[in-house]
Design goal:
The structure holds two protein chains of two kinds. Chain A is about 70% helix and about 0% strand. Chain A is elongated, with a radius of gyration of 25 Å. By secondary structure, chain B is mostly helical. Chain B contains twelve helices and no strands. The longest helix of chain B is centred in the N-terminal third of the chain and has 31 residues. Chain B is extended and about 75 Å long. Classes of the chains: A mainly alpha, B mainly alpha. At the A-B interface, helix 1 and helix 2 of A face helix 1, helix 3, helix 5, helix 6 and helix 7 of B.
């Protein structure tokens, strides 16, 4: 019985630490990605410029009458 | 043995709490109304006068198109002998909203709030019109009507489009001027050409791209981070405006409706205006009785287009349709109330 309980506890500890490790690593991955995004490529600069502009045929949707 | 059980329980509790610990920020439990992502995005350009003016003009244009189409529908249905009082009352209300949009000051500190409120009203009235129409006509007739309206053009809205396009160019010019400033170049002549239509937006962007390509890596990085920083600042400002707009939404809605009620009561006595006043009165009562508001009309602002055709019409008004709408039993022997 004791052995089973110890096994269950070990499995739980393992699960918990895996979740923790996964979370920490995925956070790091996001950060790395964000840092990567700030690479000063022309594309990124142009994307920023693009996002700051409005399309000349931009419409505001309030729904159709029919 | 008991200790082991205790440890086990603590571990299980920890495991169950873990997802909560990693979850994103919890949702607000307040009664504030949520504003949809599309509106939040639209509000981002309203940090300056031109941006706010553009959004208000775009809202005015969309309302004008819908009123135009609504009038066309009412005219057709009236000719066919349907009772269109309710539809006309909705159009009267939509007209009142349009007047409020036109009167709105884009430079006012509460311009975002006004925009969010009036867009909400326009979306809801449009939806109400659509729903009322569904009660009068069957699906086939509605589909025919939709096809017909797709080819129509509202000339008033066309004129407004030109104005909006000019404002957008002016807005883009200011944005691009800022880019030139950061780069340290004088882009006045290029930007003037863009504003008067000699150069397109893409052509200006290509010119900027050439300059960016020639920049050293550090300078390019500086440019990128400055642009990003300004964008984030704008988003933060917009977020705060959206937050303000979502607070006290219901109180503002009631006060708007009270003003509209006064206006509609001052209009000439006819069944449509009476219906308009009655509708507004009912809505005020709904707000009073629901307190924090439970009806779906109080959740701003979805684009309210879940079952409609696409886009606002861009064709010329055609003939006024003869006898091809299948009725759902609301037909009157006499003409509609005009």
């Amino acid at each position: 019985m004791k052995k089973i309980l110890l096994a269950v506890i070990s499995v739980l500890i393992l699960l918990f630490s895996s979740v923790l490790i996964y979370h920490v690593f995925s956070e790091d991955a996001i950060e790395i990605n964000q840092n990567g995004e700030t690479e000063d490529t022309t594309d990124n600069v142009m994307n920023e410029i693009d996002e700051s502009l409005l399309n000349e045929d931009d419409e505001l949707e309030i729904g159709e009458m029919v | 043995m008991k200790k082991i059980w205790n440890v086990l329980i603590v571990l299980m509790l920890m495991a169950s709490i873990a997802p909560l610990a990693f979850a994103d920020e919890a949702e607000d439990s307040t009664d504030d109304v949520e504003i949809d992502a599309e509106t939040q995005k639209q509000v981002e350009v309203m940090n300056n006068g031109i941006g706010a003016e553009i959004r208000l003009l775009q809202l005015e244009k969309s309302i004008k198109i819908n009123i135009f189409k609504g009038e066309e529908i009412v005219s057709n249905l009236t000719d066919l002998g349907f009772d269109t009082t309710e539809l006309q009352a909705i159009l009267v209300e939509l007209e009142l909203v349009k007047e409020e949009v036109i009167a709105a000051d884009p430079n006012a500190t509460d311009a975002v709030q006004i925009f969010v409120d009036l867009k909400h009203d326009a979306v809801n009235l449009t939806k109400e019109f659509r729903d009322t129409l569904k009660e009068i006509l069957d699906d086939d007739a509605i589909e025919q009507l939709r096809e017909r309206l797709r080819e129509m053009v509202c000339e008033q809205a066309q004129n407004l489009s030109k104005n909006i396009q000019n404002k957008i160019r002016q807005f883009n010019r200011n944005q691009l001027h800022r880019v030139y400033q950061i780069i340290g170049e004088n882009g006045d002549s290029v930007l003037s050409q863009y504003q008067n239509g000699t150069l397109t937006r893409n052509q200006v962007k290509q010119q900027i791209q050439k300059m960016v390509n020639q920049m050293i890596k550090e300078k390019r990085y500086d440019l990128f981070s400055q642009l990003k920083q300004e964008k984030i600042q704008n988003q933060v400002k917009a977020q705060s405006c959206v937050q303000n707009a979502s607070e006290g939404f219901q109180t503002r809605q009631e006060s708007r409706l009270q003003k509209r009620l006064q206006k509609s009561e001052n209009m000439s006595d006819n069944p449509v205006n009476e219906e308009t006043a009655e509708r507004i009165r009912n809505r005020i009562n709904d707000i009073d009785t629901s307190g924090s508001g439970s009806d779906d009309n109080n959740s701003p602002v979805d684009s309210g287009n879940e079952d409609s055709g696409s886009g606002n019409g861009t064709g010329q008004s055609g003939d006024s349709g003869n006898g091809y709408y299948g009725g759902n039993g609301n037909q009157q022997s006499g003409g509609g109330n005009q």
